[in-house]
C-alpha cells in the first residue's frame, strides 16, 4: 500500500483538476488505451486528430477495440485547425469522443487544445487529451479548460524513468465510464479510482517510481509551475532561434511544441548518419524522424530536467555535426542566438 | 531501445524455454490479462482453478472479456486434485484453455502443474500458468513440462521493484494468438514478439527496472538455478519446521509453496493486531490473510533475496509477537527447529 496523501495534491495541482489522478504501472500508451476502453462501447464513433505517430496511435487503439474512427488528418508538422474539428463534429453527430495530442511528439507540433475544448464542452462529446509531452511542460489546466481526460507518462516532464502512466477524468467522463461497455481489467479506471480512495492502487504499484514521483513533484512545485512553464517556453524559443540562425527550417514553425523542436535538415542530407555520429561519437543523443520523416529531421527535446546549458550543448553538437558532414555552418552562430533568449532566464543580480 | 541480447538468454534459461520471453511495463496482472486476451475469442470456454485470490483473478479477467468460465473450486489452502481438473476437461470439451497458479500466493499452496500439464498437452487445451511466485522459486521448465503460457512479475524471485511483467508462449500458444479475436493493444503479444526480434519493446520500456533485471539475472545464474531452487526449498522447510515446533498449524500442509508459508494463528487470536505490532513496533513485515482469511493467518515470504537469517528473524519476531499477545510460547523453540534445517545449507568447511 502506497501512502498517496503526499502525491495526490501535487498531481491534482499539476493536472489542474479537483479530480483524482490515477497512477498506473504502465507506459503512457497504457493510459491511452484505458482512455478508450473506459469511455466507449463497441461500435461507438469517435473523432481522432491524426497529425503524427501518436495521433495514429489513437486510431489504432480505437479500431483495435471496435470503435468507429473518423480521422481529421493533419499534415505532419502542422497543428489541427479548430474549424476542421468543428466540421468533423458536425458531420459525425454521433461521435462520443474527440482524441487528440496536446503536443504531437513525432512532429513537435502543438495542437490548440483550448480551442478544441471550446468545441467539445458545448457538446455531448468528451475531449481526451494525450498530454504525454505536455503535462508539466505548458499550462493545461484540465478543469478550467474543460478537458475530459488528460493522460501523461513518467518519463517526460516528470523526469522519472518510464513505467508510470497517469490519467485524470472529469465528472462527465466518470459518468461515461459507468455506461462504457468495452472490456478492460488491468486498465479499469473504476478499480483504480477505488484504489485512490483507499490510498492504494488496484494492482501492485511500481513502487520505486512512485517514490521518485514524490521527489519529482516536489522539484516542480518548489520551482513553481508558472516558472516551470516559462522555462520550457524559453528553452524552446532558444532552440528555435538557434535553428533559424543556422538557416535551418523548423518542421512546425506555426505552432511549435515547447517540449521538443523538430529541425529539418538540408535537402539531401543523411539525417540517420548525423544522428548516429552525434550519439555514438559525440555522446549527444537527439531523436531522429519516424516513418516518412526518417532521416529528414532531428528532434531536440527540452523538457523535464533540461536546462539552459543542455540547449547550448545540443545546439553546439548540432553545429559541429552538420559541419562534420560538410554543411556550411558558422560555428557558434546558433549557440549565440540561443544565448540571447536564454539570457532572459538569468537571475537579476 | 533496450539492448536485450544480455537479457534474453537469461530469461529463457529462467523460464526453461527456447521461446522469446516478453518483457512488459506493467505489474503481473497485466501479463495475466494478456494471457487471456491473446489466446481467446469472445464466447470461448475456459477452465479456471480457483483456490484463492489469484485463482479468482483469472476468473474475473476471463469474465471481464466475455470468456465463459468453468471453475474448479478448491478449498483455500489445498492444492487442486488433477482428477478434478481431468473431470472438468471431460465435462467441458470445448474449453480452450486451463488457467492456474503454480503457487497460489494468498494461501501459500502449490498446485501440481506437472500433473496438469500431463492432462493438457494430450488435448487441444492450452495450459496457462501464473508463475508470479513460482518462476525462480522452483523448477518449472515450461518447454519440458509442456506449459503453454508462463507469466511472472519483477518483484518476487527476480528481486526487483514491481513494474515489469513477463510472459513466454509455446509454439501452440503462438498459433492460438493468430486465431484469438479478443481485443488487445497495450498487451498485444504479437507486437511485443516483434519488439524482441528487433531487440526492443512495443512501447516505452521501464528502463530502470530492465537494468535491474540484468543484475538480478546475473545473481540468479551465478548462484546457479539448481541451488536457487534448493535454497528456496530449504528456507520453506525451515519455516514450516519452526511453525510445527511452536505448535502452529499450516494452512497448506499437504502441498506447501516454497515461496511463502501461511501459518494459522491460534483460535480467537487477533491476527491483525499481531500483524500491526510486528510491522509497526518490531519493524518486521509479514503478510496477513486476505478476505475470509483476514486476521486468521500470518504469511511469511521466503523468496528472492531472503536468506537463512531472514527466516531466523521472522521466526523470532513471530515468537516474540505471539508471546506479547499472551500465547504460550517457549522462546527460541521455533528458531531452533528452523536452524536444524538451515544448517543443511552451511558450507562444508
List keywords for this structure.
homodimer; 349 residues; alpha/beta; Aspartate Aminotransferase, domain 1; 2 domains; seven-stranded mixed beta sheet; disordered N terminus
Describe this protein's structure.
2 copies of one chain form a homodimer. Chain A is α/β, with parallel strands linked by helices and 349 residues long. Chain A folds into 2 domains: 7-223, 3-Layer(aba) Sandwich (Aspartate Aminotransferase, domain 2), CATH 3.40.640.10; 225-345, Aspartate Aminotransferase, domain 1, CATH 3.90.1150.10. The first copy, chain A, is built from 13 helices and 11 strands. In chain A, a hairpin with a 4-residue loop joins β5 and β6 (109-110). In chain A, 54% of the residues are buried. Mean pLDDT of chain A is 96; it is low at 1-5. Chain A binds chain B through residues 25-30, 33, 60-61, 64-66, 153, 155, 161-163, 182-188, 203-209, and chain B through 25-30, 33, 60-61, 64-66, 153, 155, 161-163, 182-188, 203-209.
What's the pLDDT, averaged over the residues of chain A?
A: 96
What pair of chains forms the biggest interface? A-B, 31 and 31 residues
Instruction: Report the uncertain regions of chain A.
Output: 1-5
Radius of gyration of chain A: 20 Å
Integer tally of domains of chain A:
2
Distance between the termini of chain A: 47 Å
Say what the CATH topology of the largest domain in chain A is: Aspartate Aminotransferase, domain 2
Largest sheet of chain A: 7 strands, mixed
- How are strands sequenced across the largest beta sheet of chain A? 1-9-8-7-4-2-3
The tally of helices of chain A reads 13
CATH class of the largest domain in chain A: Alpha Beta
Quaternary state of this entry equals: homodimer
Shape of chain A: globular
Per CATH, the superfamily of the largest domain in chain A is Type I PLP-dependent aspartate aminotransferase-like (Major domain)
Amino acid at each position: 500500500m502506497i501512502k498517496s496523501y503526499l502525491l495526490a495534491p501535487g498531481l491534482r495541482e499539476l493536472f489542474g483538476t479537483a479530480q483524482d489522478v490515477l497512477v498506473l504501472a504502465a507506459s503512457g500508451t497504457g493510459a491511452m488505451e484505458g482512455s478508450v476502453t473506459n469511455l466507449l462501447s463497441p461500435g461507438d464513433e469517435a473523432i481522432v486528430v491524426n497529425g503524427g505517430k501518436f495521433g495514429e496511435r489513437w486510431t489504432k487503439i480505437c479500431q483495435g477495440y471496435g470503435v468507429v474512427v473518423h480521422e481529421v488528418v493533419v499534415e505532419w508538422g502542422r497543428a489541427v485547425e479548430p474549424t476542421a474539428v468543428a466540421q468533423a463534429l458536425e458531420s459525425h453527430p454521433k461521435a462520443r469522443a474527440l482524441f487528440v495530442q496536446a503536443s504531437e511528439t513525432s512532429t513537435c507540433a502543438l495542437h490548440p487544445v483550448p480551442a478544441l475544448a471550446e468545441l467539445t464542452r458545448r457538446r455531448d462529446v468528451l475531449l481526451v487529451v494525450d498530454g504525454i509531452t505536455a503535462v508539466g511542460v505548458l499550462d493545461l489546466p484540465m478543469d478550467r479548460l474543460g478537458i475530459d481526460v488528460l493522460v501523461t507518462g513518467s518519463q517526460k516532464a516528470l523526469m522519472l524513468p518510464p513505467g508510470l502512466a497517469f490519467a485524470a477524468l472529469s465528472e462527465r467522463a466518470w459518468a461515461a465510464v459507468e455506461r462504457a461497455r468495452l472490456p478492460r481489467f488491468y486498465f479499469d479506471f473504476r478499480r483504480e479510482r477505488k484504489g485512490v480512495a483507499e490510498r492504494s492502487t488496484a494492482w501492485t504499484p511500481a513502487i520505486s517510481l512512485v517514490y521518485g514521483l514524490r521527489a519529482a513533484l516536489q522539484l516542480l512545485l518548489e520551482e513553481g509551475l508558472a516558472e516551470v512553464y516559462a522555462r520550457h517556453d524559453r528553452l524552446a524559443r532558444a532552440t528555435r532561434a538557434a535553428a533559424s540562425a543556422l538557416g535551418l527550417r523548423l518542421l512546425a514553425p506555426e505552432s511549435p511544441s515547447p517540449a521538443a523542436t523538430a529541425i529539418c535538415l538540408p535537402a539531401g542530407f543523411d539525417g540517420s548518419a548525423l544522428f548516429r555520429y552525434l550519439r555514438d561519437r559525440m555522446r549527444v543523443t537527439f531523436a531522429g524522424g519516424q516513418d516518412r520523416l526518417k532521416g529528414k529531421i532531428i528532434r531536440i527535446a527540452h523538457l523535464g530536467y533540461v536546462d539552459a546549458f543542455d540547449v547550448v550543448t545540443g545546439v553546439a553538437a548540432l553545429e559541429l555535426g552538420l559541419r562534420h558532414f560538410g554543411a556550411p555552418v558558422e560555428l557558434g552562430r546558433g549557440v549565440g542566438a540561443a544565448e540571447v533568449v536564454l539570457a532572459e532566464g538569468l537571475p537579476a543580480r
